[in-house]
Design goal:
By secondary structure, this protein is of the alpha/beta class. About 45% of the residues lie in helices and about 20% in strands. It has twelve helices and nine strands.
Length: about 300
């Protein structure tokens, strides 16, 4: 049986270096009606020891123990099955949240299916947060789905609050190592009837050097996910005029870091131009650009 409040789902694998910080952030929340479900994904360090300690002193904290390492997707799915609150939030064990994180969501969530807040990408420098990038969002379902597919800035499960019922027939456990959040988010947003935004930076994503997004092999998963979404939701391409931009994005995900810097300039140049049709006027000019064509030849021929 569900109840008002939030279920915070946190998969953990060898997170002993970080998890105590997110535990502190949760204990210090100004909104108190929540449960925290840790999924210890067969960690080999002291992660479970730290989690068990907080579970003994605060009944709102619970832990699920995976007997083998299952990965974050399956771990989140296990957490969802155990969740008892009306709304769920996914948090990564090495990230940070503001102490008003849940309070701000509580103000908006009661009559909405999804609530999204602004976030910052940070680097931890001697326990101090150095902000690398801050992202703001807009409260329009069509716009948001388009942004999720075309950029990396809004397609993660964190910094969002979901009505738990949205996941009744959505499988979080997918074969993809990168792009799984994009797949899950688009499916949830397609089911949602309403979205609300909080234009405050409440979530702090830790940028780590060992991120999977830096691995070109894993980045091909994003391409597979985009193709799967277009196959499952053929209306997306028509409604959002995505074809040429998606073709560009597929190439972008295969580029090396130096090439990405050049490609990003292309992306910015057509994304924000006013009073122009992306498909008919703007993108096609870039699509014919010789440098862009060299990207296509390099990766598709």
């Amino acid at each position: 049986m569900s109840s008002a409040g939030f279920s915070v789902i946190i998969p953990c694998y060898n997170a002993g270096k970080y998890v105590y910080k997110i535990i502190s952030d949760l204990i210090n929340q100004t909104f108190k009606e929540f449960e925290v479900i840790f999924i210890n994904d067969n960690s080999k360090d002291n992660t479970l020891e730290i989690i068990n300690e907080v579970c003994t002193i605060d009944s709102r904290f619970k832990v699920i123990k995976n007997e083998v390492n299952l990965g974050p997707n399956c771990s989140r799915e296990n957490g969802l099955r155990a969740a008892k609150k009306d709304f769920v939030l996914f948090v990564d064990a090495d990230d940070r949240i503001a102490n008003t994180y849940l309070e701000e969501f509580a103000k908006k969530a009661s009559n909405k299916d999804i609530v999204v807040c602004d976030y910052s990408i940070i680097k931890d420098m001697n326990d101090e947060r150095k902000i690398v990038e801050t992202t703001s969002i807009e409260s329009d379902l069509t716009f948001y789905i388009k942004e999720m597919i075309l950029t990396h800035k809004t397609n993660s499960l964190w910094a969002k609050c979901f009505r738990r019922a949205l996941f009744d027939d959505i499988a979080l456990n997918t074969p993809y190592r990168v792009g799984e959040d994009l797949l899950t988010c688009v499916e949830a947003f397609k089911k949602a009837r309403s979205i609300e935004t909080i234009n405050k930076t409440l979530y702090f994503y830790l940028l780590r050097e060992d991120s999977m997004m830096g691995n070109k092999t894993y980045r091909t998963d994003v391409i597979d996910v985009i193709n799967l979404l277009l196959e499952k939701y053929p209306d997306l391409e028509k409604e959002l005029s995505l074809r040429k931009m998606l073709e560009y994005r597929r190439v972008y995900y295969l580029l090396d870091e130096d090439e990405k810097k050049v490609a990003e300039e292309f992306f910015k140049s057509f994304k924000y131009k006013k009073n122009l049709s992306f498909k008919e006027k703007t993108f096609l000019k870039w699509h014919k650009n010789k440098i862009f064509q060299s990207f296509l030849k390099r990766h598709y021929e």
